[in-house]
Write a structure and sequence with these properties.
The structure holds 2 protein chains of 2 kinds. By secondary structure, chain A is an alpha+beta fold. Chain A has helices at residues 2-44, 70-79, 139-152, 184-189, 199-205, 258-266, 281-290, 319-327, 331-339, 366-373, 377-386, 407-419, 432-437, 458-466, 482-491, 495-509, 542-546; strands spanning 51-56, 84-86, 100-102, 105-112, 115-120, 162-169, 172-177, 220-226, 230-235, 249-254, 278-280, 295-299, 305-309, 343-344, 393-399, 423-429, 447-451, 515-518, 520-521, 523-527, 531-532, 550-551. In chain B, helix 5 (87-122) crosses helix 8 (174-208) and helix 11 (266-276) packs antiparallel against helix 12. The longest helix of chain B has 38 residues, at 223-260. Classes of the chains: A alpha+beta, B mainly alpha. At the A-B interface, helix 6 and helix 13 of A face helix 2, helix 5, helix 7 and helix 11 of B.
Chain lengths: 553, 314
């Protein structure tokens, strides 16, 4: 009792001291707070200097035309420029903003529906490295680079519709296509395969794979490449956009293992995770708990998760079987179970992130929409019975189990959902090298499931996925009514008219169930809190995300 | 002795030919096409064929194998299909890292395995012995790659620390290099110490029951002298054998360990190549590892004579 009383007295004394001290230091604290607030404002003003570090796998090659790997293309986005570009993150309205801006070309115009003319910026210089030594970019460089692309690149099919590239004068170049070709500009703007390269570097080094041959016009120069260890990029002091970039350099630390990359971010040994910089929900949620200091931004990824099937063979050549599969998927439950109830539930042929081209499923007739998004097990069973499969059937489902979570759970959920209507799924896991060169390109038996490449242009999601003979036509679709529609949208240069055609295609496809789309979750862009001026962005756009970034410390 | 050595060295040649042939056939029997993998969603028929021609993969299999073999005989291991870099250059850059990791791992696993094994045998049926045996079973039961992931991930979560640094070569800064290499070597060495510990313990128990050990005790020698001078040397023969047999485990294990600890060695190079179906790299790394394994096995066989002078080679 006595001790309690003594403790209370002591407590009161402490309180008194604290209160008096607070009164004395209040002005100081207030000033301090103001200073902090000013500091925060100052921190929001870009600051020059510093090296940003990230952990990523090793690029298989540095030549942007000799590898289509996303790693090579992201390296290219730091070193090179194209004629046109996508928005930098400071200019974008969203991560999937595909607005096209001038890059090495200050402007462009269509002379007719097959001739596109580009007028180059004057005075743009290549990096000051031998044998190019900082000379000016000319139309000859554009012709050389685009012709090299058309011959050597794995992406060369992008130029199948190009007839020729003509130099008009030192600063003017024409691209003439065989017929009107709407995706031309976005192909040119996609980092980094249509980048402009100096011929002398190839003449001297044989290709652009050697670090000393990596000479472009981009915001960073490749300073050093220690194979298996790191790539070090340095600010290009002669970059044609004055004042950019803010960073002194970028260090790409080669880290093959995903768990190791995350540990480096947790321990502050890197500023961001990898070239894309994002995590899936299953990894991001625990990260936010253990490392609340990190900045984590949610965004809607450009991508799809889907079932694809051999629509040229039984049983999936029967639209009733495909519709039954779609009706068996309880999409709200799927989103809740796998994606923390965050993401896009009404995926269709055009992914949710491509808002400008996407048909709102609410505008579809309910009778059609249900085969795209509906959930009705009884009708699914009835459709299977009508198709002559009243007891259901067994089918293998090819997939790659190594995709990031929650993909492994998606396959299990698919087995469960489809099993309830009598489709017995036998999971057929494949090793990555096997999967990517067979199933991913439509070489599989009956049914497969997985994510697909986040293409930037709507043409890839429609023509690429549905036109006969395309490598990405995984469901082997060959629909005589659809084919002319697919061609028409890619040959329409007027954006408004093209959009109407794209919407018509989505309306037509709604109840065909050539592919069955599943919900897709949000991604989480994670980085150190002092790493500013960066944001998520679709595509191979590391350069676009770092050009206006700075370190506030 | 000389005849035996010659016979063993000559046997290496057909063994290596067989290894390369088997690896070549296995790689081509596996599903998955390097060219299509390179092109992914852009694998149009004409693009695929053009790239296949460019890489020389349109030729019959036997021609591809013989072309690679003839290059090997002239000291040229070929070029990576993906990086286009000469494999020999890459090998020269990466092999020292793997060699250092392997040697450190062997040293750690032997020191730990032999030490605990001897202690366990000398203090048989005491708490030291029980503890040693539990440790041995744990080391055997825990996959090293799982342990490596734990070592990289858990301290990062709980203490904001992780044993991952940017690699520095031994020649540049020995201390910094040791700091980087010690964690992977300890993790991998601990897992390989389990079998060594068990073999050492049982060999020591057997040797301790031999007449000459009893004589040594009877002469009044101290425990230290009996164990260190008389028992250990004779108990080490099966231990050396097990190390020899485990050489391929040591080298093979680097594939995963190097990837997790981001060491720029042969293992991580091989791992990437295997996934990417980079045939020349896979074949060349296999050839190098097989040669290294055979030579080390040869050395182990010859070390028996040093450990037990009664052993004669014919």
């Amino acid at each position: 009792m006595r001790r309690t009383s003594h403790s209370l007295e002591a407590h009161s004394l402490v309180c008194l001291v604290v209160v008096l001290a607070s009164l004395l230091v209040l002005p100081v604290v207030t000033c301090g707070s103001l200073a902090l607030a000013q500091g925060a404002a100052a921190a929001d003003k870009p600051k020059y200097g510093g090296l940003v570090r990230m952990a990523e796998r090793e690029p298989p090659n540095l030549d942007p035309h000799l590898s289509i790997s996303f790693l090579t293309q992201n390296v290219g986005s730091l070193i090179y420029n194209g004629l046109v570009r996508l928005t930098y993150v400071s200019e974008q309205k969203s991560d999937a903003d595909l607005t096209i801006r001038p890059d090495l070309a200050e402007r462009w115009e269509y002379l007719d529906d097959k001739t596109l003319v580009f007028y180059l910026h004057k005075g743009v210089k290549f990096h000051n490295k031998p044998p190019v030594n900082g000379r000016e970019v000319t139309a000859q460089d554009v012709k050389y680079s685009l012709e090299r692309f058309a011959v050597k690149s794995g992406f060369r099919s992008r130029f199948d519709d190009v007839e020729r590239v003509e130099v008009v004068d030192t600063y003017t170049v024409k691209i003439i296509t065989k017929h009107p070709f709407a995706p031309m500009l976005i192909n040119l703007a996609t980092p980094a395969y249509c980048v402009i390269l100096p011929k002398e570097a190839e003449d001297k080094y044989g290709d652009f794979n050697k670090p000393e041959a990596a000479i472009g016009t981009g915001p960073f120069t490749l300073e050093r490449y220690e194979r298996g260890i790191k790539l070090v990029f340095k600010r290009n002091p002669d970059f044609y956009v004055q004042g950019l970039p803010y960073l002194d350099g970028v260090e790409w630390q080669i880290t093959p293992d995903a768990a190791a990359r995350l540990s480096l971010l947790r321990t502050g040994k890197v500023e961001f995770l990898h070239v894309h910089g994002f995590l899936q929900g299953e990894e991001a949620m625990p990260l936010q708990q253990t490392n609340p200091e990190l900045t984590v931004v949610k965004f809607r990824p450009l991508g799809q998760g889907l079932f694809y099937m051999r629509t040229d063979q039984p049983p999936f050549n029967d639209v009733r079987v495909r519709r039954a599969l779609s009706l068996a998927i309880n999409r709200p439950t799927w989103l809740e179970a796998l994606f923390f109830n965050e993401g896009c539930i009404d995926n269709g042929p055009v992914p949710c992130a491509l808002e400008a081209w996407r048909l709102d499923a609410q505008t579809l007739e309910p009778a059609k929409a249900k085969y795209l998004l509906g959930f009705d097990r009884e009708e699914a069973k009835r459709l299977l019975a009508e198709a002559g499969l009243p007891k259901g059937f067994t089918t293998p489902m090819s997939h790659y189990p190594g995709y990031l979570p929650p993909w492994p759970s998606s396959y299990e959920l698919a087995v469960d959902e489809l099993g309830k209507i009598g489709m017995k799924i036998e999971l057929k896991p494949q090793e990555y090298g096997d999967y990517i060169s067979t199933t991913y390109l439509g070489k599989f038996e009956k049914l497969a499931m997985g994510p697909i490449t986040p293409f930037l242009d709507v043409d890839d999601w429609l023509y690429g996925a549905f036109y006969p003979g395309q490598p990405n036509n995984r469901s082997h679709v060959d629909d005589p009514e659809l084919n002319p529609m697919l061609i028409a949208q890619r040959q329409e240069l007027d954006p408004e008219k093209r959009k109407r055609l794209v919407l018509d295609i989505q309306r037509y496809l709604a109840d065909k169930a050539y592919y069955v789309y599943v919900p897709i979750g949000l991604n989480y862009y994670a980085h150190q809190p002092y790493f500013k001026g960066t944001a998520p962005k679709v595509g191979y756009t590391l350069g676009h995300r770092l050009i206006g970034a700075w370190l506030a410390k | 002795m000389r005849e035996y050595l010659l016979k063993r060295v000559l046997l290496i040649v057909p063994t290596l030919c067989l290894v390369t042939l088997l690896v070549f056939l296995l790689m081509h029997m596996r599903s998955g096409d390097v060219v299509i993998q390179m092109l992914e969603g852009y694998a149009y028929a004409d693009t695929v064929e053009a790239l296949r021609r460019e890489l020389g993969l349109d030729k019959p299999l036997h021609e591809q194998y013989l072309a690679w073999m003839s290059g090997v005989l002239q000291g040229d291991l070929g070029r990576s299909l993906w990086t286009k870099e000469p494999i020999l250059v890459e090998f020269a850059r990466r092999f020292p890292v793997t060699l250092e990791l392997t040697l450190l791992t062997i040293i750690i696993s032997v020191a730990f395995g032999v030490g605990v094994g001897v202690l366990s045998a000398v203090r048989q049926e005491t708490w030291i012995d029980y503890l040693g045996r539990v440790v041995a079973i744990l080391a055997l039961a825990m996959p090293y790659f799982w342990l490596a992931i734990l070592v990289v991930v858990l301290p990062a979560i709980y203490w904001r620390w992780t044993p991952l640094w940017t690699y520095v070569p031994l020649s540049t800064d020995a201390m910094e290099n040791l700091k980087i290499m010690i964690f992977p070597a300890v993790v991998f060495g601990a897992s390989r110490a389990g079998p060594i510990m068990r073999i050492t313990r049982s060999a020591m128990l057997e040797v301790q029951r031999q007449d000459y050990i009893r004589t040594a005790w009877a002469k009044g020698l101290s425990e230290r002298n009996v164990i260190l001078r008389h028992a250990i040397k004779n108990a080490l023969i099966p231990v050396v054998s097990i190390i020899g047999l485990q050489i391929h485990f040591y080298l093979g294990g680097t594939v995963i360990i190097e990837s997790i600890f981001r060491l720029p060695g042969m293992g991580s190079f091989f791992f990437e190549a295997l996934i990417r179906r980079d045939f020349p790299v896979v074949q060349s790394v296999n050839l190098i590892v097989a040669t290294f394994t055979l030579l080390l096995n040869l050395m182990v066989d010859f070390s028996y004579a040093y450990l037990d002078p009664r052993i004669r080679y014919r």
